[in-house]
Design brief:
single chain; alpha+beta; Peptidoglycan synthesis regulatory factor (PBP3), Domain 2
Length: 435
Amino acid sequence: MRRSPAALPARIPASRFSPADPEGAAAGPGRGLRGPFGLSSFSVRTSRLPCCSGFFLRALAAALSACLTPAAVFADGGPAVSASSAIAVDARGGQVLWSKNASVRRPMASTTKMMTALLALELGDPDEVITVPKGVERIPEMSFHLIPGEKLTLRDLLYAMMVRSANDAAAVVARHIGGTEERFVELMNLRAKELGLRDTHFRNPSGLHAEGHYSTAADLARLAREAIATPGFNELCSIRSIVIERTASRDRLLRNTARFLREYPGADGIKTGYTRQAGRCFVGSATVDGWRVITVVLNSADAGADTRAIMDYAFARFAPRTLAKAGDIQSRVRVAGGEPEELPLALESDVVVCVPRGGGKLRKLVELRGLEPPVNRGDRVGDLIVEVDGRPVQRIALVAARDVAPRRSRNPLFLAVLGSFPAGYVFVRRSRNGR
């Protein structure tokens, strides 16, 4: 697809919600007023969503905890927490539900191991047997007490790294995947760049404190979303305890130290972290009635209490809502010089947003790119932006639902003249040469 290089993105209100959206009929007075490209501006107010039992109980628990636990009190901006930085996001779409200093760079301790596990699962074979190299027995802090020459599968080393937070296991994984720890750290930073983690930099695979080793709550939430979408990761991060078969050592039981994982209903991850410089850190995850929320707290006095307070807030104050499905036609635009001239725009993926339980104003906007034929079916031609109460919360790619070819002239007189021109030109040239 060719696009006009000088064309700026055109941001226009989308047409009313697709038939899959039950709120489409609730469009405001502006419904039916046609704008550019035949689209109409509108806004929709959500109805009160019925509380199912799980959400009702969680809302009740949040109210009780507000009376009993100061850390869980819902302030104007959300829960009151001790963490220096924190965030809560929808695990599927990444919509930010609440945040506090989420873009401030801080040391993140062993939450680093999420990236180490992600790369190991992407680049390694979990069933491959690895021989423990010399030197890992000298790695400080948390350990699985690995013995040089001992043989373990990559999967068992990942369990040791994610469940016990063993630094020696992280070093062995890094050397196996990258050849050296230094090369593996390079891979970590390259992957961070690919994921758009602009405020993250790694200096080691374990999270031991080092100058220049930092991240943010927002970046760690994005990393967690990528990790849980990777096959095998959820099993690693949700296990409370596991026994590893070893012949060289009696240290076999791995137990996750995160009380949140054992005590919070629906908890399913993800990673603890602590150093003196980073404070207590935790990337948490919980799924209630099919909706998964990810939280991050950095430099917290009580990471478990902070995580519970944020989770209670998210589940009590928001609910996921599917507005449209992948493939639904959202708008139709005119492609000048195209055949056919009208181009339907389809969603590349489902549109799921988290809306306030008390009701919120929803609006969908289409942001178009400069379009010129030819346009191929499936080409990305713009984005659908969803706003909740005037704040953009979701951006979904819009793709061409059919091909659009350059228009060919259908003027018969023009075609006749064009077709006879070469013959006439030759006749004139020959007549002149004969003189």
